[in-house]
Amino acid sequence: LVPRGAQILENETGTAPGVLIQKKKTLFAFLPGPPTECRPIVLRDLIPIARERVGGKRLYRREFWRSFGRGESEIYQRVAPLVKNLEKRFPLSVSFGVHISFPCIDLTWEVWDTGEARPGDEEIDRVVKQITEALGPLCFTRRRESLAETVFQLLQKNQRKLATAESCTGGLIGKLLTDIPGSSEVFLGGAVSYANEAKEILLGVPHETLETHGAVSEETVRAMAQGIRERLRADFGLAVSGIAGPAGGTKEKPVGLVYVGISGEQGTKIVHQVILNGQGNRDQIRVIAAHLALDALRREILVSHGSEIPVH
Amino acid sequence: LVPRGAQILENETGTAPGVLIQKKKTLFAFLPGPPTECRPIVLRDLIPIARERVGGKRLYRREFWRSFGRGESEIYQRVAPLVKNLEKRFPLSVSFGVHISFPCIDLTWEVWDTGEARPGDEEIDRVVKQITEALGPLCFTRRRESLAETVFQLLQKNQRKLATAESCTGGLIGKLLTDIPGSSEVFLGGAVSYANEAKEILLGVPHETLETHGAVSEETVRAMAQGIRERLRADFGLAVSGIAGPAGGTKEKPVGLVYVGISGEQGTKIVHQVILNGQGNRDQIRVIAAHLALDALRREILVSHGSEIPVH
Questions:
Q1: What is the mean pLDDT of chain B?
Q2: A197 touches chain B (CB under 8 A)
Q3: pTM confidence score
Q4: pLDDT band at A312 (very low <50, low <70, confident <90, very high)
Q5: Which residue of A has its CA nearest to B172?
Q6: Does A179 sit within 8 Å of B189, measured CB to CB?
């Protein structure tokens, strides 16, 4: 059963069809909810219809930056001086947008052909370069890819193998890396060393280190990163330990405190940070901690290969 | 700036407030998008307003079942005979719904006080019992909790410790378990043994087993489950290996083939299955594989503790 006068949009990947209904000047589309059913109909039927209706207005260029490590407002402030001038001069043909793609921040710049004035390619190229420089190492990709994908490609390009040792993230880094088809080319695996026993048995963290400094400490994370690197004979060992909360925080070690260790040929580096000033919830802290680790590894690979601006 | 005539809904967790606008008989609410900002406003302001407007119609009882292992249509078919009769007799006061909460299927039964006839408590209780029996072990909880939470509670209740060995799921099982605050009480950790070397080094899977039977085989998964259980001195070792695709499938071992191994005091059990007939995408296969493992463990704990209907 479909509404009277509706046009059916065939669903090739499921049973419920989509329908199109025209009411006065407005076209309403009702689509199945599951992304695997919705997406093919949008691509096959709706995009062409939308394109036809939009008529004269056409996308001329779209530029994209994805960043990690700073909030929405700081990303906007960094590019605002460059952006404001263009928006003022070309109010109809230029649009900038800053969007949260948690835990990353996206910046999109669209230039439209509307019949009105728009910036030329030379000016666009110049501003793209300025924006890229303003974002610096915060921007990890110019494509719509995840940080894990960027790290995967860097490891692949440099023929490096990674092993992980995860405590508070509990397997999330491994999950993010193995979401990528072909990740076995660079990712050997690792340990989810949630309990202290697991840190000792699977990674060889000395019992005294855990006793003296605790599970969330520079010393333990250093031993975790070195331990997994050596055991799996990897090029990089990436380790994380932190306090994801809601319980377990103290004055000295608050909820949100995370240590990241990267062990490589040249030794072991430690990054530590309190995530969201300890105000984040458990899920947020864990997701940011996993990305903090991946981003630290990304920067390490880029620095050790002499690249200044870590964007590809 | 807010629209003229709008009522402001204060946002205690962010900066942008919500607004309420009345147009004729309709009340429009505009809320901030982030769930952490939207949810408190809905709970504090909108639910009471909606309740007042709904007036006479009040929810009398809501019953809920969450299942894993069979599709939407099979779940509906199992309860249809019980449900149809009630829907026919009480068309205005009774409503059933089957919803996908991927990879689980939810069944909800609501009984409303509308002024019309509705079933009494005795009849509701009887049908609840019949539905619960019809779903049998497919239903793992009567609450809105994840399968990982159910498993966590079972382990906690029976004072059992778990260790995991993940290949194709790459850390996802650990991630799902450690999403739960306090999971360290039952979850020791484990190995993400993505590469064969990791299976040998971290789990002690014999090189010959991998050579002879391959990484995705009963023999390897058996060794993985036993290996992690022994190394971390856990009560249960839970292991998964499979072919998540899109590449790597063969005629004998197609994409979607997954082996789950559970090692316990009484030995090691193997469950194997081809997920979604090998038609699922990588993400779906991995999520289902992780749940297949958790569900196998749930059933194992229940059987070993003599419970017939595994619902709490």
A1: 93
A2: yes
A3: 0.89
A4: very low
A5: A175
A6: no
